[in-house]
Amino acid sequence: MDNAQHRDGADPRPSSPTTATSPDQAGYRQEMARELGWYASFSIAFGFVSIATGIFTAYGSVLNTSGPRGIWAWPIVVVGQLAVALIFGALAARIPISGYAYQWVSRIVGPVWGWIMGWISFAFLGVVVVAVDYTIASTILPELFRYQGTAQNAWCVTAVVILLQAVLVAASTRATHRVNNVAVTVQLIGMVSLTVLLFVVGAVTGKLDFGTLFESAPAESAGYYALGDMTHAGPFALAFLLGAFTIVGFESAANLAEETKEPARVIPRAMAQAVLSLGVLGFLFLIAITALAGDPAELAASDTPVATVITAVLGSVVGKMLLVLVVLSIFSCGLVITLSGTRLVWAMSRDERFPGWRALRRVNRRRGTPLNASIFMLVVAQAVLLGFSGSTDALFELFSAATLLPAIIYASTVVMYIVKRRSLPPSQGFTLGRWELPVIVVASVWLGYELLLFRDASFRNPWLYVLLLFAIGAVYFLYLLATRGRAGLSMPEMRDIDRELDRDLDEASGDGRPAGVGGDR
């Protein structure tokens, strides 16, 4: 897209609220290829969050640092993240275009801060897909097929899984959504059935012991609720990482706003409903697993404590079925992350604000997908995987980095909302109303507390990853400023983005008609 008409003498400040949000002035046309309904949007948010993935990945780590009692941090995290999701929903209803926080901050605060937010979001998506896929290779497949997992075979398997996800995203958006919808449905039914089965069988066999929920071992009971010092967080504080790692990514639904029917109404509700349903179901599952844990200290030594409990209570067949369910859930989660990352790279590239934007902004004529952006995300994920491949504790470092980055994104976006909420564009379908102030307070307190957790010395390497990505981004950003100046970073109006999307989709259809007309995409 040639944005010269926006750049020559352009005002680098954000677009006015009226220009940025009025549907008629924005040039929204319903013949756009908006194919995603509520369930598809809900599935995107649900699939990214994926409690099966998060709990299976992080439960063992939290059991070691905080003991069984640590699961009581989960509902607190859910309340905090629900408040964040509601604020994100209020923004998505005002600026329903792909790029989520990148677009919101660019148009409300300014393109410089928006670019920084976009780069942080890109860094998060680049590491989190490796974090979730690495779980398949390092813990699940060795347990499922009874072989010895090593750093080498974990690296190879993860690389193959990332490749498969990228190929599917690049090949067909429609097929990607179908696979994700099926996977989310299976995960939802499977997790509900499994949770009920654990409670029933545990009660019948007398194995349920709710007293375990309040034990601290193997963590130290002395100073359990202490906040810690400047370089160490207390045992209970570290328990928040389980929920903080799991309940993230709900905003991915907003990253597909331009492909969603009535995005200003559908997306905010889909995000909030995904967080709430996952929070309740996840907590019930945690209670069942923990109450059936037996000896918590012994369970903490297991590489797959969740599978260990299920196998002990329900038998090896059901245990293996769970592992298959988790593999499906993780693959779906990685698929959604890849899809979301591709859309973000494409959104920044069409605004000429991403390295290699000339190639990455293109939509493949035959596939109707941003093929080059999909390949780029594949390369980035493989590079991140290579960077962590030599670590002896790669899984912890990956999921720590994948928890730190969204905390930064969420906190920055909430601060922007607080500062600018009196001058935000009008909502097109969702508002916080009288609940705005309580929601802001809850989100602010939670995110402030979460960020304090990362002062712990165990997060040194995740911070190094973040700083490295920031340094790379800073070099490119300085290049943009040097070659274009601040005026060259001004955002195109939404009407121009819509026209560009129409043009790309027309070219992708290959017959001169707008994609989505006549049932073609």
Features:
transmembrane; disordered C terminus; 21 helices; disordered N terminus; transmembrane helix; Amino acid/polyamine transporter I; AA/rel_permease1; transport; 521 residues; mainly alpha; transmembrane transporter activity
C-alpha-based Rg, rounded: 23 Å
- The CATH class is Mainly Alpha
**Which architecture does the CATH hierarchy give at level 2?**
Up-down Bundle
Number of strands: 0
Estimated helix fraction: 55-70%
Annotated CATH topology:
Amino acid/polyamine transporter I
Span between N and C termini?
Answer: 21 Å
Percent of residues in β-strands? under 5%
* Class of secondary structure makeup: mainly alpha
Structural notes for this entry:
Keywords: Membrane, Transmembrane, Transmembrane helix, Transport. By secondary structure, this protein is mainly alpha-helical. It contains 21 helices and no strands. The longest helix is centred in the first third of the chain and has 35 residues. The radius of gyration is 23 Å and the shape is globular. The chain starts with a helix and ends in a 12-residue tail after the last helix.
Could you write a compact summary of the structure shown?
The chain has 521 residues and is mostly helical. The chain has helices at 4-7, 17-21, 23-26, 38-49, 51-66, 74-92, 101-108, 111-145, 151-171, 173-205, 235-246, 263-291, 296-300, 305-314, 316-350, 357-360, 371-388, 394-420, 436-453, 460-484, 494-509.
